[in-house]
Structures are given as C-alpha cells and as structure tokens.
Amino acid sequence: MDQRKVFVSLFLLQMLVLFGIIGYMLTEQLSFFDALWLAIVSVLTIGYGDISPETTAGKLLTLILIPLAIGLTTYILAQAAGAIISGEFSREMRKRKMNQKIKDLKNHIIICGFGRVGQQVLHQLHKENHSLVVIESDEDVIARLPEGTLFIRGNATEDEILLQAGLERARGVVVTLPDDADNIFITVTVKGIKPDIYTVVRAERNFSEEKLYRAGADKVINTSNIGGKRMATAITKPISVEYVETVLHDQSNDYNIEEILIQSTSLLIGQTLKEARIREEYGVNIVAIKRGPEIINNPSAANTIMEDDLVIVFGTSEQLKRFEGASM
C-alpha cells in the first residue's frame, strides 16, 4: 500500500467536503452546520433527504461532489483491501507489536549485523536465554532470522536506528559486520550515545584492532586470527580441541562457563575454596577469580573468597544456578 497516495487521497477528500460546505453556503444560503451536513451526506452518498439542494447551482455542485467523492473513496478502500489481501497490513501490525516489545526491553544485547558471525552470536546468546535485538539492513537477510527474533531494519551507524533498538537501556552491543571501517563507525556512534556500554567488536585485519580500541571498543575479536590459531591447535592437539568443542559448543550437553559476582551478603565471603567445599557442595570448578585488576588463574584451595570477586566457574546449568544462589 502506497501510504503517501492514500494520505493525499484523504486530504483531497477533506478538501472536497470543505468545497461542498462553502458551495452550499453560497448557493443554498445555508448555515455552516446545515452546509456541513449536506456536504457530508452528499460525499458519502447517503441522501437522507431532510436537507437537499433547491437551486440549480446547488444541484450542479452535488453532481460534481458525488462522482469525485465516489472515486476517491473507492481508491482508498481498494488500497486498504489490497494491503490486507497481500499481507502488508498484518506485517505492519506485527512490526508495531515488535517495536513495542523492543521499547519494553531492558538490559538486553544488541547485535549489529546478521551475517555469518552474527548468526553464531545470536545462536549462542539465544541458547543462554539473553534478550536480544538484531539490527540488519538487508531485507533478504532479515527473512532468515529465527522466528520470534526482535529486529530493527536499518543501518547501525545511524543514531535513530540504535535508539530504536533500545541502546540507552541495553547492557551490551556486539558489532559483527565484515567491514572494519563500518565497525569503527558503529563503535564511535554507539559510544557517542552511551559511553559506558560494553561493546564487543569484530575485526578482520590486525591493524584494525588498535583503531577499534581507540574508537571505544571494550573488546575486539579478530575472527581471522582466532580461526587460524584454532586450525593450528586442531592439527597439533586434535583430542584437546575436540574435547573443548564438545564441552562448549555441543548442544546435546549442558556445560557452560559463567561469570558470577560474589555479593556482600554471600556466606562464602572469608572462606577459602577448601573451606567452602565448592566442588563438593555445588559441583562447579573454579577456573579463575578476578579481583579488581588482578586475575587469579587456576586458584588453589588456599585462596580466600572475598566480596566483589568475579568468579569464573565451569559446570552444568543446574550446578551454576546453585552456586549463583550461594554467591548472593
């Protein structure tokens, strides 16, 4: 449906009513209200008969109003019917409903681009039950989005598009476009709107990494380097790589790595890892502890758990959930 043409037709219809009001006031010497009444019933071809044109000029005016009004009304109804039949009306309603859902989101993650890398990011974040909004400009790519995925069609370098995706309420942004220049531009735009938002950005070339960090990216992922290192490791340590892939990427298992913050009310504070019996009580493995700028890798049983420690743990979803409860 061409909305511009419909709006023009509605405007012309209103002008036709106004023309009829003025014409009947002049030709029939009617009051404004009576002229309005006669113009409306003439345009809508109702014809109640309580007021009708008596003069020749008034009748000629009616002969002009009725065909023009019928033509405009028919065109508007045809456009509306065409939109309903073609599904455009239902698409527009779905779009409005989705936009409302996006407006209600908080602490969600925005994915800029749904190419090869963006699809993997979406799959993993969806698996972890994060609230997501995808920004993509290609309509054909949007058609391949999983059903129920919230999206904004547009260019992520534009402030308006980022704001529509709820950037001001989001917890993070992942920029996955294959062009480093576009990713730098998006990063600058994102940080210009919300400087403190955590931003993970894809880089294709080594020299782009430093530029992306200067643009404000919190973490830059060079997909080419990661792919090359993974291939090299796969040829030299195939069993180790297969194990890691099975644990972290196989959908049939339930293992995950999680970051859990030790809050001030946690009963674990002040206890060593041995005293807390974390492995025995919760089933998780402590991979590392981040304490301020310091990272304690592979902590020993003698390490003490402190308030505001960010503990990196490995385990099943159920085990991680139990340990998260103990951290509060």
Helix share, percent: 40-55%
Let me know the average pLDDT: 86
Task: Find the CATH topology of the largest domain.
Answer: Rossmann fold
CATH class of the largest domain: Alpha Beta
Structural class: alpha/beta
Radius of gyration: 32 Å
Unreliable spans are none
- Total strand count, please? 10
Number of helices: 14
The CATH superfamily of the largest domain bears the name NAD(P)-binding Rossmann-like Domain
CATH architecture of the largest domain: 3-Layer(aba) Sandwich
So what's the overall shape? elongated
| Domain module count | 3
Largest beta-sheet details? 6 strands, parallel
Distance between the termini: 54 Å
Strand order of the largest sheet: 3-2-1-4-5-6
- Can you write the helix and strand succession as a string? HHHHEHEHEHEHEHEHHEHHEEEH
Sheet-strand content, in percent, reads: 15-25%
What can you see in these coordinates?
Helix 1 packs across helix 2, helix 1 runs antiparallel to helix 3 and helix 10 crosses helix 11. The strands form 2 sheets. Strands 3-2-1-4-5-6 form a 6-stranded parallel sheet, with helices on both faces. It contains 14 helices and 10 strands. The two termini are about 55 Å apart. The longest helix is centred in the N-terminal third of the chain and has 31 residues. It folds into 3 domains: about 80 residues, Orthogonal Bundle (Helix Hairpins); about 120 residues, Rossmann fold; about 70 residues, Alpha-Beta Plaits. With about 325 residues, it is of the alpha/beta class. Helix 8 links the parallel strand 4 and strand 5.
